Amino acid sequence: MNFGKKIWLIGNTSEKSKKTMEKLSKILKAEHFLFDDINPDIVISVGGDGTLLRAMHMYEYQLNRVRFLGVHTGHLGFYTDFTDEDLFEVVDALYEENPAKAIHYPLIKVQVNFADGYQIVRHVLNESTIRRASKTMVGDVRISDYLFERFRGDGLSISTPTGSTAYNKSIGGAVVHPRVKAMQVAEIASLNNVVYRTLGSPMIVAEKDIITVCPAPEDDYSLTFDQLTFEYKNIKSIEYSLDGTTISFANCAHTSFWERVSKAFIGEVE
Ligand code: NAD
């Protein structure tokens, strides 16, 4: 009995993902799961971490009720628990899945305020970055009410705990356990010399603080929201906060965070 759980599958363009989606759809249909792309209870992403990020952004405005489950078609991902060999285990896990036992990870709310009063609000699962499109970026960084520094460099990355192992790690950020509710600010090639100075190291900012970046006006900036990139002009400020929004993963078989980190980056310890 699957209690009428509504499922939707999202894959990528690889042959392996397409084949796995086909197989999984057949099995789920035979088990009488309902397929619903508008109001699904569980979204299954079939591919890699990028596929899960895409799925999250497709249901960004339904995160309070949708749960996610990741099937990877390559190596172990950070948001994917099952392999394409485990499809019957996926079905068992869906039967056992209990929304009350879902695993929640915090997302960062990114509010872009434009000079004319217009606002854009997005949530990110990994990170949001800001870069100036052409030259060195200059921007004031506030932590809540305190003007912390004037940043000069390529840009800044503000990441979630689960995103700490992604782009953040590549630019020298620390790996943060997802139970730590915090945001991480990491510099992208900051300028540090006798004239300009920034902290020069990543910062872990507490849950209740708001990070505000006020980039020098009248310039073009490139903003990323996970895998999505946009170019904007006339940005007045960007506010990053943990507003309580989370992504929920179906409780089933969720690999422990440190095991995942060790398997992904270190491999077997002899
Ligand atoms: P993608 O889907 O090709 O992913 C790039 C790599 O990042 C993949 O190996 C993926 O498994 C890994 N990844 C994604 N999220 C991760 C996480 N939370 N922890 C550890 N590894 C993770 O790339 P895309 O679709 O362009 O962007 C998606 C994400 O990829 C971005 O949010 C960014 O964090 C990451 N990325 C990293 C770099 C880098 O490290 N230099 C560059 C581009 C993108």
Tell me what the structure shows.
With 270 residues, this protein is an alpha+beta fold. It folds into two domains: 6-105 and 246-265, Rossmann fold; 108-241, Tumour Suppressor Smad4. Helix content is 18%, strand content 40%. The chain is built from five helices and 18 strands. Strands 7, 8, 9, 10, 11, 12, 13, 14, 15, 16 and 17 form an eleven-stranded antiparallel sheet that branches. Strand 10 (137-143) and strand 11 form a beta hairpin. The protein is elongated. Bound molecules: nicotinamide-adenine-dinucleotide. Nicotinamide-adenine-dinucleotide is lined by residues 48-50, 53, 77-78, 126-127, 162-163, 165-167, 170, 226-227.
Low-confidence stretches: none
Instruction: Report the count of strand segments.
Output: 18
The CATH architecture of the largest domain can be named as Sandwich
**N-to-C series of helices and strands:** EHEEHEEHEEEEEEHEEEEEEEH
Bound molecules: nicotinamide-adenine-dinucleotide
* Computed structural class: alpha+beta
Rounded to an integer in angstroms, the radius of gyration calculated over CA atoms is 20 Å
Individual helix count: 5
Shape: elongated
Distance between the termini: 44 Å
Return the CATH class of the largest domain.
Answer: Mainly Beta
Domain count, please report it: 2
CATH superfamily of the largest domain: Probable inorganic polyphosphate/atp-NAD kinase, domain 2
Strand content: 35-45%
Helix fraction by DSSP (H/I, runs of at least 4): 10-25%
Tell me the major beta sheet. 11 strands, antiparallel
The average pLDDT score comes to 94
CATH topology of the largest domain: Tumour Suppressor Smad4
Function: Involved in the regulation of the intracellular balance of NAD and NADP, and is a key enzyme in the biosynthesis of NADP. Catalyzes specifically the phosphorylation on 2'-hydroxyl of the adenosine moiety of NAD to yield NADP.
InterPro entries: ATP-NAD_kinase_N (IPR017438), ATP-NAD_kinase_PpnK-typ_C (IPR017437), NAD/diacylglycerol_kinase_sf (IPR016064), NADK (IPR002504)
Pfam families: NAD_kinase, NAD_kinase_C
Keywords: ATP-binding, Cytoplasm, Kinase, NAD, NADP, Nucleotide-binding, Transferase
